[in-house]
Amino acid sequence: MKKYIQAYMNGVRGFMSSRMGSAPLSEIQEVLGEFETKILYFQHERLIHLIVTVLFALLEMMSIFVCLVSPSLSVIVFCVMFLVLLVPYIMHYYFLENSVQEMYKMRDELKSCLEEKKKL
Questions:
Q1: Contact, 16 vs 109, CB < 8 A?
Q2: End-to-end CA distance of the chain
Q3: pLDDT tens string 63-119
Q4: Cβ-based neighbours of 84, under 8 Å, separated by 6 or more
Q5: In whole angstroms, what is the distance from residue 19 CA to residue 30 CA?
Q6: Is 62 helix (H, G, I), strand (E, B) or coil?
Q7: Alpha-carbon torsion (110, 113, 115, 118), positive or negative
Q8: How far apart are CA 105 and CA 111, in angstroms?
Q9: Which of 82, 91, 100, 117 is the most buried (most CB within 10 A)?
């Protein structure tokens, strides 16, 4: 998913930097429409990953609590396993959150260009 988001955002950035100024109104509307649809998909992906990340954080906290109450090797192993899974989930969610926020800014630029083209 990370490569897909990066490639898509780079494609839109390329359009914005090279062709947006000279593009006809219909092309900008088409790019904006597709971009808004992709934002919705990525927002959904972000929500799912937030739910999974919170679940693993809760599991980690519960396993730490159980480890403190009755330490045993199996509980320590679960605690470490949840931590090993939680760190990449947090990193991936961080990437998704920042990417979607960057897409909001890009969308605003596309919309302002579209409004300027409509005025002309």
A1: yes
A2: 39
A3: 999 999 988 898 899 889 989 999 999 999 999 999 999 999 999 999 988 888 887
A4: none
A5: 13
A6: helix
A7: negative
A8: 10
A9: 82
Residues 6 or more apart whose CB falls under 8 angstroms from that of 21 comprise 113
What Cα–Cα distance (Å) separates residue 48 from each residue in 41, 52, 83, 94, 105? 11, 6, 19, 13, 22
Half-sphere exposure of 25 (CA within 13 A, CB side): 7
Provide the 3-class DSSP secondary structure of residue 38.
Answer: helix
- Give the phi and the psi of residue 51 in degrees, each rounded to 5: -60, -45
Hey, what are 27's tokens?
């092309």
* C-alpha span between 39 and 17 (Å, rounded): 20
Q: Where are the beta strands (DSSP E) in 21-76?
A: none
What is the spatial distance between Cα 93 and Cα 46, in angstroms, rounded to a whole number? 7
Closest by CA to 66, choosing from 78, 83, 55, is 78
pLDDT at 49 over 80: yes
Round to whole Å and give the CA distance between 54 and 57. 5
